């Protein structure tokens, strides 16, 4: 009767709410292994940028280190102005030289600043057999008076280590 | 009698659902690191009290945050050339803003911006170095312009 109708009404309402909660938790993960809403605004801005199409997650980094692989990692932060100036020139250079330049976004995984002892972004690190062997701390030079590297410096770094492994 | 039970179950599920959604928002505590745009902020009693987010960073970064209190005045008059002074939203007013987002009667609000920023840390490292050499704030300001301003 009346109670029955009410129970049907509440039942439908409950099902709808449960469905909403479930749907809410089913948001697709981005390349960062978490949904877009959980990312920093600066990271959301570069999600579809082709210059950031080789994103590496902490698990992949750890796995490569454990497996004693030799590889390049570009430690950057999505909100770092110098990285924003450097990446659009560095990524095409790496592609051209056939370098598999893994991109690690420290803004999203900031505990790795300490773990990898990164003092500033961007920093490129070369790992040889799972151990750091070389690094370039800093981005592209803005002018003659400021700190940083030229594209030729980056090219020399890539060419120096590429023969040792480029996993 | 049966109808009453039929009513109780969905009502319970409904209540749980509402509770779940309501709790999703969560509360916030200013003294815990919390997001503000692309930065994390953390409130402490004074510049002598280090924020907990520093645990994630290198020893050099920790040291630089620890000397902000000492060089606060000079940092306030120095430009930061990392690009933060040109942000469209909430541009930084000086190098100090790269470390401290705000200060009031209740204490200071640290930001982790400099934890990520090479120029911000390098500028403060130079301020410390030049201060120890006995340079005046005006001289240091000029040296920062000469060494960090790309348009100098």
TrEMBL record, chain A:
Origin superkingdom: Bacteria
Pfam families (alphabetical): Thioredoxin
PROSITE patterns (alphabetical): THIOREDOXIN_2 (PS51352)
TM ranges: 6-26
UniProt entry keywords in alphabetical sequence: Membrane, Transmembrane, Transmembrane helix
Thioredoxin domain mapped to chain residues: 15-163
InterPro entries: Thioredoxin-like_sf, Thioredoxin_domain
CDD domains: TRX_family (cd02947)
Protein name: Thioredoxin
Organism of derivation: Cohnella luojiensis
Source lineage: Bacteria, Bacillati, Bacillota, Bacilli, Bacillales
TrEMBL record, chain B:
Any Pfam family matching the protein: PCYCGC
InterPro entries tied to this protein: PCYCGC
The keyword Signal is annotated on this UniProt entry: yes
Keywords assigned: Signal
Endpoints of the signal sequence: 1-22
Protein's UniProt name: Lipoprotein
Organism: Cohnella luojiensis
Organism placement in taxonomy: Bacteria, Bacillati, Bacillota, Bacilli, Bacillales
